[in-house]
Design a protein that fits this description.
single chain; 4-stranded antiparallel beta sheet; 6-stranded antiparallel barrel; Elongation Factor Tu (Ef-tu), domain 3; conserved putative lor/sdh protein from methanococcus maripaludis s2 fold; 3 domains; mainly beta; OB fold (Dihydrolipoamide Acetyltransferase, E2P)
Length: about 300
């Protein structure tokens, strides 16, 4: 028994350890060639394709906006003479046609009333009785009792507003029922900020500073050919897509004419037929959902979904 414990068991242990070490070395530095070949992927990734389908599409543009008061208007003296009477004071609310002051005209001599062209608040008014005024001089400024909705938009969205209707739907949180504003227009400030603005009807009670949502129904189509905007290079009226039949051949570039878009899908009016197979993403672009961001020329950025140029 002593011989087994001193010699046989230690020798067997050394043999087992050596065998394990040899196996580990083989696995680490000499992998089996058949196994390596079996693990090599045989398939190749292909670009995703989609079929041209038909459906209904509505281009409903939602803009976050604010209720604001219209810009002040200037009241000018219509005659030359001396002020004989002052009827109002700065900060006062006046009605349309209300007399502001009276001037005694010098030639011919007569009294002429200068009235408010519309209702509003007298923002500036510093005339006094006995003061001489000249023809056309600024007499007062009135902040009119008119309001509008203004909302800032990314410049790229101006393409979607081409041909938009002249009215929009306004919703004020906690305010009256949604109503229609008129005279929808685009404004571009000197610093490049782009906004849309429309007039609030006079019978609507609103207050400056209220937050509102401006909904513009740019257009709609029923039973239209539609494709993802990610498949189109371009976007405003015309664009390019790539036909791919899935055979592995090079895709065919095809010019298309485009209609309305909802930001995810776009109508195709010419260039494709229902059932055509096209690349889901423009070749050379990413297929993820990360937005693409661009400088807006005013120190900021605007972002859009990949493949969209609206």
């Amino acid at each position: 028994m002593l011989v087994w414990r001193r010699w046989i068991f230690p020798i067997l242990l050394l043999i087992v350890c050596a065998a394990v070490a040899a196996a580990l070395v083989k696995l680490a530095f000499f992998p089996d060639q058949a196994d390596a070949a079996a693990q090599t992927p045989a398939g190749q990734m292909s670009a995703p394709v989609v079929a041209v389908t038909t459906g209904d599409i509505t281009d409903q543009l939602e803009v976050d906006g604010t209720i604001a008061r219209d810009d002040a208007i200037t009241v000018r003296s219509q005659v030359e003479g001396v002020i004989t009477k002052v009827d109002v004071a700065q900060g006062q609310t006046v009605a349309a046609g209300q007399v502001l002051f009276t001037v005694k005209q010098t030639d011919p001599v007569k009294n002429v009333d200068v009235v408010a062209p519309e209702a509003g608040d007298l923002k500036t008014f510093e005339l006094v009785k006995g003061q001489s005024v000249s023809l056309g001089v600024e007499a007062a400024t009135i902040t009119p009792a008119r309001y509008h909705v203004v909302g800032t938009v990314d410049p790229v969205l101006l393409y979607r507003l081409v041909g938009a209707p002249a009215d929009a739907q306004v919703t004020i949180q906690g305010g009256p029922a949604p109503f229609t504003c008129t005279g929808l227009a685009v404004q571009v400030a000197d610093d490049g900020t782009t906004s849309v603005v429309c007039a609030v009807p006079g019978d609507q009670q609103v207050f400056a500073g209220l937050k509102a949502t401006l909904s513009v129904n740019v257009g709609s189509a029923t039973g239209a050919l539609v494709i993802p905007v990610t498949a189109v290079k371009g976007g405003s009226g015309t664009g390019e897509v790539w036909l791919d039949d899935g055979s592995g051949a090079e895709p065919e570039k095809r010019a298309v004419t485009l209609g309305v878009t909802d930001g995810a899908m776009v109508q195709v009016t010419e260039g494709l037929a229902e059932g055509d197979s096209i690349r889901e993403f423009v070749p050379g672009t990413t297929t993820g959902t990360e937005p693409q961001c661009y400088d807006d020329g005013a120190g900021g950025q605007y972002c859009e979904d990949p493949g969209a140029n609206w």
